[in-house]
Protein 1
Amino acid sequence: MTSLLVIIVLVLLSIALWQLTKIFDLTQVGSIKDDSQVANDGDNNVQGYLMFGFLAFIYIFTIYGLIKWGPLVLHTPASKHGSMVDSLMNITWVLIFIVQAITQALVHYFSFKYRGNKSNKALYLADNNKLEVIWSGIPAIVLTGLILYGLYAWTDIMFVDKDEDTIEIELYAQQFKWTARYSGTDNVLGKANVRLIEGVNTLGVDLSDPNAQDDIVVSELHIPKGKKVHFKIRSQDVLHSAYFPHFRAQMNCVPGMVTEFAFEPVYTSDEYRAMPFMVEKVKKINDLRQAKSKELVANGLPALDPYTFDYLLLCNKICGASHYNMQMKVVVDTPEDFKTWLSDKPTLVQEVKAANAPKPVEGAIGADSTKTNDTAVIAKIAMK
Amino acid sequence: MSAEGHDHEHSHEHEHHHKDTFITKYIFSIDHKMIAKQYLITGIIMGVIGVVMSMLFRMQLAWPEESFKIFNVLLGDKWAPNGVMANDIYLALVTIHGTIMVFFVLTAGLSGTFSNLLIPLQIGARDMASGFLNMISYWLFFLSSVIMVSSLFVESGPANAGWTIYPPLSALPQAISGSGAGMTLWLVSMALFIAASLMGSLNYIVTVINLRTKGMSMTRLPLTIWAFFVTAIIGVISFPVLLSAALLLIFDRSFGTSFFLSDIYIAGEVLHYQGGSPVLFEHLFWFLGHPEVYIIILPALGITSEIIATNSRKPIFGYRAMIMSILAIAFLSTIVWGHHMFVSGMNPFLGSVFTFTTLLIAIPSAVKAFNYITTLWKGNLQLNPAMLFSIGLVSTFITGGLTGIILGDSTLDINVHDTYFVVAHFHLVMGISALYGMFAGIYHWFPKMFGRMLNKNLGYVHFWVTAVCAYGVFFPMHFIGLAGLPRRYYTNTNFPLFDDLQNVNVLITTFALIGGAFQLVFLYNFFSSIFYGKKAVQNPWRSNTLEWTTPVEHIHGNWPGEIPEVHRWPYDYSNPAHDEDFVPQTVPMKEGEVVLHH
């Protein structure tokens, strides 16, 4: 419907334009026909007014956008550093809107006000050093402020103190899926390399590393509220980007190196879901989905599931054909729930052991060389 | 102006020196004016391909669950069976759209056209320093265009790892279909393109330095020439770095080296690569990639400076400040590339440095914007289509430039990096702005190129619909970016979180389709006016610069007699010491006339 309206408006607009210029053609028929294809006073007049109209268009479109699409943008940050990011963002926006409103007004108003006329002559003005100093000085001062705040925040976010109390979690990216590895009770991740990938050890963890003994691998990310989580990020194939929009966090995943990002969640998933803006957003989304479901059902297709909010980890660097569907659910638990959730997860070593345990029936037959290797590794670990 | 009177005697004599066959005149021409037209028309053809691609992927984004017959017609059964676009080809369209628009339209089509046309004409030279090199430059560019277009037809599909072709995705055919033969052709095409661009740039630099006519000091050059000159220097500095990146990538792809690859496990096996780094590629790529946006926008700003001054009937405000800001932008543009890599995993300390240098660029940019606005102030604005596009450029350059303050700030970039916010920002600030610059240049210099005028009413319709649609497309896009929607997603239907953004996507696509369709008005105007346009007079816009002292009919060597001598700067509009509101550069200074800009 909106699109139809837009089409109609634009068609009418172009007809109006056409007619206006036609009228000016016709008014000149009596006098000398001007087909020089150079703007004459009539053109300047019409185009000048249109310039003024365009200013109105920009203003109205901006205000309309803020009202209509403003509520769509990411709201309350769910991480501690996020509020710092958002306040810098808000300050920047205020500046941008002020400058935009003024400069667009000047550009378009001048285009209207000084539209050409045969009887006018332009002001012969070539230079004014004072003005140049003013309008390079003001942005310089304002930008210095923004840069200083930005750098302060950046340093705070990106540099994690060695002795800061954090939980270490590995985020592991591959085409088109995320996996997480918890560092366990020692809070140190075991070494890993893609050359060690084998069987259930899909992350290539070095099972002989003492630090790897208590590592836990899962496909749903749980993190505790109120504790800084230090992510060590790896990729096994191409570039990916770990993007947590609600936490204002993002870092690329680069094969061959470990990248890092740390943040502290401040709202559990339940708390965030219960926030008024989120309740409203989810309701709106569900209304849309319901309307669509009706259509689907009418066509004999299954209806859409209703939506409940979850934090998400998205891939935000083109990584292949199914890049558009690389996501992982993120759950922020209370510290207690987090502990409970993690406690009943088997460690990777246990999983590997279970997978390699000789199966009762065919155990004797299929012991190939890799398997013996594996058992050797596990035996070694067990001895320690 | 002194040369004008001799037009006739000399032109005959001159034409007899050259016996032009069809081939030497229209195809393997060494005349800069013909080469400019060749660049322009090739650029327009590539532009049509690029824009049609964007229409297709915009339709896919707005109506991901629909099928369109047009998809099947244009993409074929393999990529759009039953009119449903495949995800590989979606990424290919996005990739090739970016490549074509950035390099083939807005670099070659814009800079190639107007540098070639205007450098000799505006500095008072018979031709480029090396006409032959100039011809080779165009034909290499043409060849690279042909290869790029032919890559659309290879069986495994064209390159589809994004126009930034980050390895390992672009290096491994196992990772994505387009990284097979399509990527090879892309790299070969780009290597030729870079060679063409370097030849062109060297020619521009040498010509501007050596072939200026008597009296044409550097501070009497039109700002167009300053922009082209500095652009060429940036190109010579940064394009070779992309060439090296492309060559190293070819080595990694074909000869098993590990410049950019390390520790890769894909399709069930470990690859042998060890020790390379994709981040190195990002550095090399953006060392060109960022200056590239200035290679695109500076010529557009140069063109706009000239057109705004001429049509305001007023000197460009702050001529020297404009030159200084071009130089400042050029210098800074080579030390800001890291702002594309804030979250690439490079040392965060570098992020601080690049934030600082990036935000500095806002200062010379602001100077330019304010100087344009002051030029309009108390002018006598002749609102020709070229002028409208120039004013439009100032408007979109400001709107797009302002959001650069967000993206250039590493802290804020964390959350908007690679979202549609970025797409909105760069399309406005360098895509649409440069396109406006290109259109402005075409409307303004069409009479110089083809000896005929473009229809102004069609020009007005073209401008206004384009202007409304450009904001209609890119303004709402900021919001979906701020909602966290990543770019390069084939569809968002897997994320109920983004369901409420779908209406916005439909609106964006609607504007895009209308805006795209109205470019037909321009194409019609352009091609019909070449043959049937109103015959141009020698100086239709009553401009000061030298190109308008040449005869309307093109001749080799540009001026039939002596090359005119230059006596003043190019912006003497509405000088109270003169009766006319323009004083061409060839008019000698009156006794006691004050030189304003020195």
Protein 2
Amino acid sequence: MNKEKVIVAEGLTKRFGDFVAVDHISFEVSKSEIFGFLGANGAGKTTAMRMLCGLSIPTSGKALVAGYDVFKDTDNIKNSIGYMSQKFSLYEDLTIRENIRFYGGIYGLTKKQIQDKTSYLVDHLHLQNHQNSLVKSLPLGWKQKLAFSVAIVHDPAIVFLDEPTGGVDPVTRREFWELIYDASERGITIFVTTHYMDEAEYCNRVSIMVDGRIEALDTPKALKINYDSASMDEVFLKLARKAVRGE
Amino acid sequence: MAAVIVENISKKYQVEKTKVTALNGISFEVAKGELFGIVGPDGAGKTSLFRILTTLLLADAGAARVEGYDVVKDYKEIRKTVGYMPGKFSLYQDLSVEENLDFFATIFNTSISENYDLIKDIYQQIEPFKKRRAGKLSGGMKQKLALCCALIHKPSVLFLDEPTTGVDAVSRKEFWEMLQRLKLQGISILVSTPYMDEASLCDRVALMENGKILAIDKPSIINSKFSKPLWAVQSNNMFALLKSLKNWEAVSSCYSFGEFYHVVMKSEEKGSREIEEFLMKNQFQEIVIKQIDANIEDSFMALMHTSNE
């Protein structure tokens, strides 16, 4: 179907002194794909993600994100992506409306676009009665759904999600994934890390990093066959146990 | 006598102009030597409960006893008796691994060598780094050091507040294996977690949400009380399948679980035959439908649903 590549990485490497945090990783992610980026703590996921977001210049290798070079075009990359993590998401002391306006403004949306987006999001997330509440007064699950919606308020080519559902209740966690599927249907590429192995099953393809390298990359179905496992949890345990280096 | 007795504990916080209820009349007991899990998402009230039981926070109402001591009146005794590992890493970042452990041992009037047996198993994994500052340790190693520091005075009750949050699947598994070994030493353990799958590793669990307990029992018994038939459903184009099932008026609930959706029908009369007919009529292919037993996450969501009604 759609073969347009949104991320192309070739031999991407990052060293800190003698330590090779990310060791020649190569992979491609297609437009509107949901790509799971898994690995044990310390496998190199965060470093790899920081390079792809234009926040850290690689030591060697090549990578294009939304068509831009991670060495030279980091400003363009930042304009083309969204980012959300469990730790930093929204401004707690601003209201829901203010957060949307703030992020819309940062990403250069017009006043009209911001107005349209605000009413769409408030409606879509059923926040009509809370739009003027401070974000800190909201339950975590609502915050995370709002944070995701705000991270894609500018319709980026790709959105990076760093453990977006940690600590979220099981119902909201599933609603969150419905938002992810929705965004993917609208053509946004999803790059997501998670510690919940059932969520790995919801990805189109999954890569598993071990000691700085991509040890496996395939659809969840193929990974389970190749590693003779009943679940992604089992695949992950089999691969991550091979890790030599500590965290 | 039970290791922990909680009777009708309530706690509210003032946030801006509104009162937020953290704990709403919670009661339960933990038997001696039991591994008891408090399972629930962020905001359920787990940390408030732990802080009340470790005498760091006063409840608005209710009473609680730990090893027979009252959490208000006998707070000094409780502090000597329990070990507490808070959710947030709270060791001294500027002290080395060894210095932290030595510090906590000294505070409790003991020494590392005196209780080395208890922590040996865990401490040996971080001993190669004993000269390293705690602040420079990885997440997994910090977690092990914190557990050692909570154990060094040989507590009879151990409180672990979300010890596995943000920890990868391999380290989580190892951590639970450590807890099983500690249990064998006769220590009563209260552990909280947002990961539903960890419930099955506890002797008994309290499922918590919004300051209330949804259920307390052995995980297998909680699951056996899931009253309706549960169907695992799979087909090609899973997202379209989800939308179809959710819009079908015969469906009571439909949640994703790995590569399947778990479906409960409104009427128990309707089963795999009706689901299959519906999916075929809607052009789905590669259909798989099987009846399954509920797991703790199915139970949790069903209970959440009932309690919100």
Protein 3
Amino acid sequence: MTFLDYAPAPESTALLNLQPEYGLFIAGEFSPAGGESFTTISPATEKPIARIAHADAGDVDRAVAAARKAYDKTWSRLSGRDRGKYLFRIARLVQERARELAVAESLDNGKPIKESRDVDIPLVAAWFFYYAGWADKLDHAGLGANPRALGVAAQVIPWNFPLLMLAWKIAPALAAGNTVVLKPAETTPLTALLFAEIVQQADLPAGVVNIVTGAGETGRALVNHPDVNKVAFTGSTAVGREIARSTAGSGKKVTLELGGKAANIVFDDAPIDQAIEGIVNGIFFNQGHVCCAGSRLLVQESIHDDVVARLKVRLETLRVGDPLDKNTDVGAINSAEQLARIRELSDIGEAEGAERWSPACSLPDQGFWFAPTIFTNVSTSHRIAREEIFGPVLSVLSFRTPAEAVAKANNTPYGLSAGIWSDKGSRILAVADKLRAGVIWANTFNRFDPASPFGGYKESGYGREGGRHGLAAYLRGAK
Amino acid sequence: MTIDRVVSPAHRAIEVLGDEPTESTLKRYLDGIPGVDGVGLEQRAAALGTRSIKTTSKAWALDRIIGLIDLTTLEGADTPGKVRSLVAKAILPDPADPTTPQVAAVCVYGDMVPFAVEALGAAHTTGSGEGIQVAAVATAFPSGRASLRVKLADTADAVAAGADEIDMVIDRGAFLSGRYGEVFDEIVAVKEACRRADGSSAHLKVILETGELSTYDNVRRASWLAILAGGDFIKTSTGKVAPAATLPVTLSMLEVVRDWHRLTGERIGVKPAGGIRSSKDAIKYLVTVAETVGEEWLRPELFRFGASSLLNDVLLQRQKLHSGHYSGADYVTID
């Protein structure tokens, strides 16, 4: 054994108090569903965690009715200050149960415990704290005096950051005075159900938050429900399109946060060691299951070979394995389905002539795993340079001039995020000005803050989440 | 500890710079090194600090830390008795447990070298890597404010008295005002003063005093400069200036050492000194070394801790690991 084969340091699951079976959380209580229940598994071991209820159209109807009742009878009549108190309470409960939530998230999603512990859960609490502060200050949100809530919000979230996406959706909706029905992703319902327990602990009025678990059908029934005033969706562009189509003309307010194929641009004067870290964090954070992941690396020609060589050395030190081990850097792929897609696109990349490389790493036999992979010799027309892979796969392209970098970065149907690495402030500003992307990071990547709006251009969706702008998605201005 | 150099430092510098090392060639070279983004560097260091080192890894790490320590006393009030006591501790760190490894070296002021050598006796290194080294601070430590003549005499005295390693300080005033050539020449001259009558040479650790360099860019430039001039080790601090060693600074220096190895195949040592007091902190440094330059650097020829109080904390942790419970400060010896 060598020192770098650090001895196992597993986070204990002893503090988890999971039920063998979970119902739907409607009107403040767990209740059985009409559909056939399903099992949620740990993607790292394929072992079952719990049985999860499958909501059918009738259940969705019940949930929306509960949300409507809560909106009419209690939530819309509460003062902003009182709504804020509930949100502060939720935020503190998230902090109190942080370790438990982190373990549950890593178990159900496959992400490394160091990420759920140091990124996901602290951001969840931050989001609730941030929007709790807004609840009694809506007059100053830039929408004119006395903006009003929309009513019942239908919210459908993805599996990559299960609890964080829940917070992004629920915190601003409640602060603005709406009630919600939220559907977590089929493969990652666990932390949403623990959140339901927190809602009970916080004594939130019944029906203000409802959580219905299920698959695509459940989500479809929810967003198409006639008594829903607002639809908020985060997920794939294909589903986003379907939602845009089905809600058109219904009068529902819609925000969509969809895919991305972000360019991470490294200029020859970049702080090189930090850029390497930023590239790694950009694409291998959360196994690359990040809509804003820096999946296209654009490196200036003169430093291309040096960057690739350094990147390879760095990747050799990434630790892939048990998500609950505190030293794991890259965890499990969330589902067999997603793994198949990553494999397919990687094989296509190879077939199209790009050069594939992965560090030597042994992957566990059980579970869904994919070694960190980089492709060099990628051209802009390759599918791996155009399609969202949503996995730990980086495509490396080069450029010669800043103008070429901008042209290549913008040459994508998406426009969610981008990164710029340079020691020269004026260059960063000039390039950022020309990039068509919702979020642009300079000399960093994948940093999030509740005060900063997030959202995309083009096929990455519309509407903004986070910050003052995130409130506008849940409010009707007086004008 | 011998790191053979195929070519002399001066020749190596010419090879890397592509020209004679002068003020202007050095300035051009050092200013061309990619910058350091402080936020990113500190984030990376913090991330390395979250590694969880448990059970067998921890046991290995604690023993290795002891073997990497330059047990240090650098007080104006030092006496031969104090130095003898320090040496006794270096040879047998934990009298209750003879399996405890010995430290790498004792580090003292130049005038204390004869006492350290005498006290070490048979435990003193034979030159083949076994045994404990004697390191002496020199060149008007800690400020470096003396003429070159005095600095060289200081160095030669310590070497003549039996020092195996010289910890010199750079002229921060010259460095900060951009006179890189002056700093370079001084290191080359001190390196020359490390030569013994028989042609062998004491090893040279170059103290950058990073607490006075104020930016990570300067730390990086000074690291390159010290290596170009022939330093065998680059060392963070004297321990007399705050802040002394920090993890981000050490990480930045390790990155230079890694790049130098990639460029020339030579292995340069790194010594964080001052401010590392707990086993927990020291383990973070081991992780940072292993994940930045590689595990092969975790040996006394290439990595040292300059510390005095660290040893006792490691001994307490070591006792805890073996006995299962914590003892207390009175169960380890004060030096």
